[in-house]
């Protein structure tokens, strides 16, 4: 959630936070989503369950953050071109979806989202919000450079980028080539650029 | 090659086939993927379980065909432009992913694919083959019109089209607008066209 202002005075210990995130990713990769529990994560991270529940409402939120927001703290790409910036964002998605934790987490996470309408309703507004913020800044710079029009639909482009990577790696199970992020970025950038 | 006892030399009855497909889609939409069984489909379709097992190895194959190949028998679009053809293909995907049967089938189907490496290994070669064939013909015509280069990567474009629709409708749960297929088609066509 790199785009949010830093929360001042939050009593969160960054070492516990990092330990919880690492323990979650490791447990999911080793045991699968179903067998991963808040109690198991707490034990592995050396914290109390309450510490986890103060920060995450439940397992889906915790696993999503541990597995699918690994690049949210990275600097927002500013390569000078839309294609370059999208390549960097896509490379992050490729690495996330190609991780053992992602392969282990996805089916159970999708089932939990699908089974709980209140959780599903928060995918766009909560779970995808940090990625959208990053893409919005990339788009703003591309508008200033005259590459794309103001009002280019950021939600639909985000769904296309994430959906392509999810389908290719997470669903079909392709091993990503080094060129994958660049090839997808080239297609999408060209597809939305003013010409 | 089926290991079931041979039938009495009767060719496959297209009415049974259609009845089985309809019963499967209806059962999945009503009861969910987990509660749908080959026995339940057989009873609803008025056929024996053997009749189903002669055609489909198991529930994932049957449900996939019932829910996600509804447009495979439609004429391959030939509108005169790549954007037009992709719009037709995408409209079919939008309708499939927006169906009640798809929403009910997806989490369980994805879990079955993920849990069975031999099933997952057949996604590209078997499950996606008819869609790829259709896209290949659309691409061949676009190459002849000079819109795209020969060798445009059909697998990656198919993953992008299907992934975008899956993510937008199946995962995020967006209600598709009438413009969705055309907007996605315009982006992808422009993204792969020669300019």
UniProtKB/TrEMBL annotation, chains A, B:
InterPro entries (alphabetical): Homeodomain-like_sf, HTH-type_TetR-like_transc_reg, HTH_TetR, Tet_transcr_reg_TetR-rel_C_sf, TetR_C
Keyword line: DNA-binding, Transcription, Transcription regulation
Q: Which domain of life is it from?
A: Bacteria
Q: What GO MF terms are annotated?
A: DNA-binding transcription factor activity; transcription cis-regulatory region binding
**Which PROSITE patterns does the protein's record reference?**
HTH_TETR_2
Q: Which residues bind DNA?
A: 37-56
Pinpoint the HTH tetR-type domain residues. 14-74
A matching Pfam family: TetR_N
The answer to whether UniProt assigns keyword Repressor to this entry is no
List all membrane-crossing ranges: none
UniProt-listed PANTHER family: HTH-TYPE TRANSCRIPTIONAL REGULATOR RUTR (PTHR30055), TETR-FAMILY TRANSCRIPTIONAL REGULATOR (PTHR30055:SF148)
From the Swiss-Prot or TrEMBL record, give the protein name: TetR family transcriptional regulator
User: Which taxonomic lineage does the organism of this UniProt entry have?
Assistant: Bacteria, Bacillati, Actinomycetota, Actinomycetes, Kitasatosporales
């Amino acid at each position: 959630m790199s785009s949010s202002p830093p929360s001042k005075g939050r009593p969160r210990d960054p070492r516990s936070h990092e330990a919880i995130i690492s323990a979650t990713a490791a447990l999911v990769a080793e045991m699968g989503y179903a067998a991963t529990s808040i109690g198991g994560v707490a034990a592995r991270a050396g914290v109390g369950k309450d510490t986890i529940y103060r920060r995450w409402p439940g397992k889906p939120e915790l696993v999503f953050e541990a597995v699918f927001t690994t690049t949210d703290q990275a600097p927002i790409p500013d390569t000078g071109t839309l294609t370059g910036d999208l390549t960097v964002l896509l490379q992050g998605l490729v690495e996330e979806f190609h991780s053992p934790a992602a392969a282990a987490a996805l089916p159970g996470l999708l089932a939990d989202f699908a089974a709980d309408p209140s959780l599903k309703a928060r995918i766009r507004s909560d779970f995808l919000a940090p990625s959208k913020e990053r893409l919005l800044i990339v788009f703003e710079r591309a508008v200033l450079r005259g590459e794309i029009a103001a009002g280019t639909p950021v939600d639909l482009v985000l769904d296309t980028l994430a959906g392509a990577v999810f389908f290719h790696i997470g669903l079909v199970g392709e091993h990503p080539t080094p060129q994958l992020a660049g090839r997808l970025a080239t297609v999408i950038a060209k597809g939305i650029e003013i010409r």
